[in-house]
Amino acid sequence: xxxxxxxxxxxxxxxxxxxxxxxxxxxxxxxxxxxxxxxxxxxxxxxxxxxxxxxxxxxxxxxxxxxxxxxxxxxxxxxxxxxxxxxxxxxxxxxxxxxxxxxxxxxxxxxxxxxxxxxxxxxxxxxxxxxxxxxxxxxxxxxxxxxxxxxxxxxxxxxxxxxxxxxxxxxxxxxxxxxxxxxxxxxxxxxxxxxxxxxxxxxxxxxxxxxxxx
Amino acid sequence: xxxxxxxxxxxxxxxxxxxxxxxxxxxxxxxxxxxxxxxxxxxxxxxxxxxxxxxxxxxxxxxxxxxxxxxxxxxxxxxxxxxxxxxxxxxxxxxxxxxxxxxxxxxxxxxxxxxxxxxxxxxxxxxxxxxxxxxxxxxxxxxxxxxxxxxxxxxxxxxxxxxxxxxxxxxxxxxxxxxxxxxxxxxxxxxxxxxxxxxxxxxxxxxxxxxxxxxxxxxxxxxxxxxxxxxxxxxxxxxxxxxxxxxxxxxxxxxxxxxxxxxxxxxxxxxxxxxxxxxxxxxxxxxxxxxxxxxxxxxxxxxxxxxxxxxxxxxxxxxxxxxxxxxxxxxxxxxxxxxxxxxxxxxxxxxxxxxxxxxxxxxxxxxxxxxxxxxxxxxxxxxxxxxxxxxxxxxxxxxxxxxxxxxxxxxxxxxxxxxxxxxxxxxxxxxxxxxxxxxxxxxxxxxxxxxxxxxxxxxxxxxxxxxxxxxxxxxxxxxxxxxxxxxxxxxxxxxxxxxxxxxxxxxxxxxxxxxxxxxxxxxxxxxxxxxxxxxxxxxxxxxxxxxxxxxxxxxxxxxxxxxxxxxxxxxxxxxxxxxxxxxxxxxxxxxxxxxxxxxxxxxxxxxxxxxxxxxxxxxxxxxxxxxxxxxxxxxxxxxxxxxxxxxxxxxxxxxxxxxxxxxxxxxxxxxxxxxxxxxxxxxxxxxxxxxxxxxxxxxxxxxxxxxxxxxxxxxxxxxxxxxxxxxxxxxxxxxxxxxxxxxxxxxxxxxxxxxxxxxxxxxxxxxxxxxxxxxxx
Lengths: 214, 777
Hints:
heterodimer; A: mainly alpha; 55% helix; B: globular; disordered C terminus; transmembrane (chain B); transmembrane helix (chain B)
C-alpha cells in the first residue's frame, strides 16, 4: 500500500470513515490480503478459501451482502463484482460494537445501520420489501443446516413468522387488506423492543496469530 | 349464612396480607423467623436444642435437590456465554474474599480489640474461607423475588454455584493446616493446596459430565419403561453427587454440571409426561429442601450452648465481608469490562456486591469444624449464624427496594416470537461468518463449532432418533406458538359457544373470533386442560373453519387451525388398535371423536359441493397411515403443503406414512349424495381462496395429513340423515358399516407427482380428495 506516509494517511482516512482503530485496520488489511491472495480486490470466489464458512447455512447470503451495492453505499441495487479494501472495511464496520460513550442519536443511527444491513440481506431483490418468497428463501437457508427439517416445514415456519410480522406491523387487518411485505419501517418496528446493538457485533481484537491461521 | 361469608372474608384478607408480605419480605427471611420462633418453643419446652441442622443431613439430603434443580433448569446459552465472567468471580473473587477477610480479622485480633481468644492465623483463614462463599440457596431464594435481568442473575447465581470448588478446597486445606499446626505448614503444602484446587474442581466437573452422558444414554433407551424415566433422572444425578463426594471432589460442581449437560438430551428423550413429572418433582424437592434449610437455620440458632458473643469479632466480620466483596467486585468488573461485549455498569456491580449472600453452606461448614482443633468453634458458629441471618434477612429485605431505586434493568419475559428466534438464528450465523471472514476466533466461532459437533456426534449418540428430528429451537418456538394460538382459539370458541363457529354463508368474510377481546382465564384453563387430557374431543369444528375463506386476513384462524391440525390429533396411538373393520368401539371418546369428525366431514363436503361447479374440484384421498408406536407427534405434525400463490388450484398435501393395518385399505369415503339430504350449512370457502393469494402473506400450509389420519383412524362415516349438530358433544354413535367402504380418487391438482392413490369406484358425485405429496420430511 505504498509508502508509510501515504499508508498512514489512507489509514487515517479509513479510521475516520469506518470508525475502526488503526490497529484493527492493519489487522483487517492483513486478513484482506490473505483472502485476496495479494490482489487489491476480492471477488466472490475468494471467500471459498475459508473452510469454516462452508458449514454456514446462509453463507451465500452473507457473501452476497459483501458485494451488495446497497451495503457498499454505491447504488440502490445490484451487486458489485469485486470489492477493494475500503469496501471490505465498510461492510465490517456494520459489526463494530457500539462505543460506550455514544449519545442517543448516534445510538439510534448505529442501530438503524445494523438493521439496514440485515434488511438488505433479507430483501434480495432490492425492492424495499421483504416479500413472503424472500422470507421463505431466508428461512429455508437458515434451516438447511438441519437435515431433519424439510423444505415444507421451513416454509410453514416462514409463513408463520410472516404472519407474526404482519400482526406486529399492521395489527388486525381488514378483510380486504393486503400485506405486501415487510418494509424497512415495519422491520424497525419488529425490532423495537430488542437491543440489537448489543447483539450484532463482533469483537475485533488484536489477535495476530489467529488471523494467520485458518 | 353469615359465618361462611365472614370466614371467606377473613381468608381473603389473610391471603392478601400474606401475598403482600411475601412480596416485600423474602420467603427465606420469613422462614428463618419462623424457625427462630419454633426453636424458641422447643427450647422453652425442653431446655435443650433437640433439632439442629446437621451437616450430614444438609450436605447429603437438602443441598443436592436444590443444586440439581438449578443445574437442570440452567439457561445454558446464557451460562456458557458468561462463563468467563462467572469463573473469574467464583474463583478469584472467593479467594480474594477469603484471604482479605481472614487476614483483616487476624490483623484486628493482633491489635487486641477482640480480647483474649485462642485463635491463630490459620483459624482466621479457615473462618474466612467458609464465610467468604456466596451461597446458592440464599441467592436463589432472594433473587426469586427480585427480577433482575438475566445476565446479572446468571453471573451472581453462577458464581454461587461454581465457588463451591474453591470453598471446598480452601476449607479442607486450612482445616488440614490447622490440624497440622501452624508451624508445620510448608511451602509444599501450599502448592499441594493449589494443585488440589484444580483436581477438585476439574474432577468434580468431569464426574458431572460423565454422569450426564450416562443419564442421556439411558434415557435414550427408555421407550418401553416410560414410567420410571423420572426416576433415572434423579437417581443418576444423585449418584454423581455421591460419587464425587466419595472421591473428595466437588460434589456441587458435579451435580451442577450433570444437570447442565444432560438437560438437552434428557428433555428430548423422555416423554412429555415424564418431563412434566421431572419438572414438578424437582421443583418440589428443591423448594421443600430450601424451606427446611431456612427453618432449621432458625431453629438451630436457638441453642444457648453455642452462643458466644464477641462484639468486635462479629461486627468486624460483617463489615469486612461487605466491604471486601464490594471492592472485589469493582476490581474484577473493571478487569472484565475490557473483555466483555456487554459491559457491566455500576448499577450491576452494586447489585452484585449487595447480592452476595451467605447462607446455609457456611453454617454447615462451620458446624463441621472440630472443636478440639479449632478452639473457638462456638464463636465461629455464632458469628456465622449472625452473618447468615443478617445477609438473608436484612439484605434480602432491602435488595428489592434497592433494585427498584437504582432502576436495574429487569428481566423481560416476552412471549417467544418466531421472528426473534429466526433472526436470532440468522445473527448467530452471520456473526460466525464475520468472525470466520475476519479471521477471529470468537465466541460465535466456538459456539458454532460446538453446535456442529453436538449435532453430528452427540445428538446422534444421545438423543432418540425421533427426537433428533424435532429438536430445533426454531421449530419448538413455532410449535409452542401454534399451540398457544390453538388453545386461545379454542378457548375463544368455547367462550362464544360452538355455535359461533357455524357461519351463515352470507357472513363468510368476517372472522368470527375476535382475538382482541380478553379471554376469561377460567375458560382457557379448562380448554387447555381439555386439550391436554382429551385432545381429540376438542372442537374439530376448526376443520370447518378451514374450509371457509382462507384469507390471509384470518391470520389467527389459519395459524391455529393449522396448529390444531397438528396438535389436536396427538394421542392417536391408543385408538389405533381399536380400528378394525369388525370391531365396534365402545370408548366414549371414540364416539365423540367420530361424531365430531363426521359432522366436520359433512360440513366440508357441503362446502365442496357448493364449489363443485367452480374451478376447484378437490378430492379427498384416504390413505392408510401407519402410525409408528411411540413416535412423537411432533415429528409428524409438521405440516407440509403448498400455499396457493398465483395458481388457482390448491394443492393439498400430506405426509405419507407406511401402511400398517393388517386390514387392507380401509378407506373413508363419503358419498356426497347421501349427505345432501340433511346437511345444511356452512360457508363456501374454497371459491375465494384462490383469489386471495397475493404476494404478501399467505396462509400457512394446512396439512391434510391430519385429515387423512382422521380418515383412517375414524371409521368411515355414514349416516346421511344426521344433520349437523351444533354442540360438540356427541349424542349419537354413528355406526359404521364396512360395506360402504369405498375408495376415493384424488384429482390431480398440480403438476407434482403423486405417489399413489386409490381409485375410486364411487358414483357420479366424486368425493373430493387431497393429494398426497411425494416428498415428505
